[in-house]
Amino acid sequence: MPKISDERRAARRTQILEAAWTCFQRRGLHATSMDDIIRAAGLSAGAVYSYFPSKEELILAAVTTSLGNLRALIAPLLAERPLPPPDELVRRIAEVITAYTVHEAYDLRRIALLGWSEAQRNERLRETMRGFYLPFRAVLEEAAAQWRDERVLPEQAATDDVAKLMLSVILGFVVQSAILGDVAPSALADGLRAMLTPQPA
Amino acid sequence: MPKISDERRAARRTQILEAAWTCFQRRGLHATSMDDIIRAAGLSAGAVYSYFPSKEELILAAVTTSLGNLRALIAPLLAERPLPPPDELVRRIAEVITAYTVHEAYDLRRIALLGWSEAQRNERLRETMRGFYLPFRAVLEEAAAQWRDERVLPEQAATDDVAKLMLSVILGFVVQSAILGDVAPSALADGLRAMLTPQPA
Amino acid sequence: MPKISDERRAARRTQILEAAWTCFQRRGLHATSMDDIIRAAGLSAGAVYSYFPSKEELILAAVTTSLGNLRALIAPLLAERPLPPPDELVRRIAEVITAYTVHEAYDLRRIALLGWSEAQRNERLRETMRGFYLPFRAVLEEAAAQWRDERVLPEQAATDDVAKLMLSVILGFVVQSAILGDVAPSALADGLRAMLTPQPA
Amino acid sequence: MPKISDERRAARRTQILEAAWTCFQRRGLHATSMDDIIRAAGLSAGAVYSYFPSKEELILAAVTTSLGNLRALIAPLLAERPLPPPDELVRRIAEVITAYTVHEAYDLRRIALLGWSEAQRNERLRETMRGFYLPFRAVLEEAAAQWRDERVLPEQAATDDVAKLMLSVILGFVVQSAILGDVAPSALADGLRAMLTPQPA
DNA sequence: GATGAATGAGTCTTCATTCAT
DNA sequence: AATGAATGAAGACTCATTCAT
User: Fold this and answer.
1) Is any Cβ of chain B less than 8 angstroms from the Cβ of A201?
2) C141 interfaces chain D, CB cutoff of 8 Å
3) Does A201 map to a domain?
4) Which nucleotide is nearest to B36 (CA to C1')?
5) Is residue C39 part of a domain?
6) Domain count for chain B
7) pTM to 2 decimals?
8) Of residues B27, B31, B164, nearest to A188 (C-beta)
9) Is D77 buried (19+), middle (13-18) or exposed (0-12) by CB count in 10 A?
10) What is the pLDDT of residues C104-133, one digit of tens each?
């Protein structure tokens, strides 16, 4: 038998991963059985196991891929120059997260919550996440420096603290909209702009 | 054994709940077996089941109790008058969350992440959480109104949007400090204050 | 504490037995838990166990008592003189079984089916039943002799075979009316009389 | 292991069913654990569960199959023409029941008692049984009509009542021989013939 | 005597993973 | 390479029985 082409292999991987996402978000990481995924992917057990050697590996891959997709979506927003002000940036990131959610067969926010939860007990997953969020926060810190230079923020503003605040706002948006479901990106942005608006002494 | 006193019953319940918290946060909600909890509580299976009729019920109770404890801790901060400014309020809430974590045998942030994840697939848990976060956000909205009246925020600030932003900041702090573990309450507060500080035109 | 009077003890026993019958017939012998019976009797576990040392004992007592009650009801019918003809006797026995069923809080036929089933795996119960059915069949044999002497049955009729046939008819009535539920005592009697009616050569 | 052939699947099913019959009749329906059956079948838990999704389903299948086998055995006897007289028919049916018992690894009478008992609390089983006994009784009614036409029974005999009587005789034979164990088919037939024999006025 | 909380072995069932074909 | 039947350890939960109070 001829070896399967690399393309086909990659396509299969994606097919499995997408089946996994669908199941995970519907039933959660642990309540989803390998059989659920196998059936959703329309493959055999052996086939799935030839791509992912264990359920843990599949979970890790699913979360890593999600994170990667997210990064690809958000990176351009942070690279834009001139950099939009904080409220505008937050709005656009929130929009990207929401849009992703709607377009694809899975909800990025749900995957995020599942992943964070799982990261509590999975060292490798935790490391993967640190490898994503830490650089992301570093970029936010650069943005903060830019805002400070542009006098959007005060001169003495600690850029690392601003980055932490910004990351919290974004992560919190994910939680809040997943649990309460009524937070529009613009609401978040407007709330933040209210903070930024200078008051008359 | 004759009828046990109400006190002892409550004590046993707490004993089981604490064992559950410990296990849950160590291994996660699903990877924790009832047997783990039973052994951690030092009781028999039957005894545990006479207090909580199922694992789901135990999970629900664990999360609900955590949420209740958290509410009891945060409520006074929001009731204080004069109301501290936004950055100060955020700092104190974050401190309470962090402190709770350290003192008790469980980490409130981990429990929160586990609970959010589980709420995706558990209707009752989701409702319990809505019943907690929605009123909490309503109180934050009152605080926003107060800040607006005190001219801490601009007159035209939408108080509901401010409340959503504030809730995001707090929830995001929980996630960020649970995953990255390097976010001091004061850092968050300082980041937020930077936003609030008026810039010279 | 003064010893409980014998009367009270007997009343308690009956109370427990009746609770057991109710539960058994509703859920079956094995699906009924001791707790079901305990609650139905309105007593404590200890109390029930002071009357019946085990579930098996309780089952045995329940069946034995049922059988005893049945015997008390049927005995007079067989003692009547002149003895009614076979079809009439069958009708009256079937009526007694049906009536018992309706009046009391339990269905004698259901108890019978449960008991027969249980007797398969319970030596003592099987013996108890033999101790009931064997003498009963002996009495039927006496009846057969009487019928033969009265020329209701042919002279050469084997009375033991007739007794076996009669017992089958009665036991079969219990099964058929429990499972199909549409067999009136008179139908059974009429069916039997059709057999007995002499045909013109 | 690739797809198993239909034959092998059917063979496995039978293998499990036979193991179940053996266990059920030895220990009863409820006292038999799935583990008993699994070991008796020489398979793994998963294998058994892939053929029967639950114990209830296995019980239902065991009883249904028994009933089906019984039907296959009895049908020819009722289809014979000329139709044997009632006593002869009963004898042959009783013989078939007894023979089945001896040849196979299970006792049809015991299975019947267990099934009747279980049918009390199992709606589906009850329906299955009605679906078996009602048509069987209908065929007996046809036989009764035939006997009436042949002047074996009186002209005014109610065929439905005769059918009920005949069914009772057969069901009662099952009970009596299972509990008392000393009823030969011929004894039953002879008892019935005694009834049928015309007496001189 | 009575109570009912506690025990813990045993039940049914699931599911990640393997490997014979 | 692919299949999917089979494995069997582990999980949630029940319940007859006991015994400290």
Assistant:
1) yes
2) no
3) no
4) F11
5) yes
6) 2
7) 0.90
8) B164
9) middle
10) 567 888 889 999 999 988 999 999 999 999
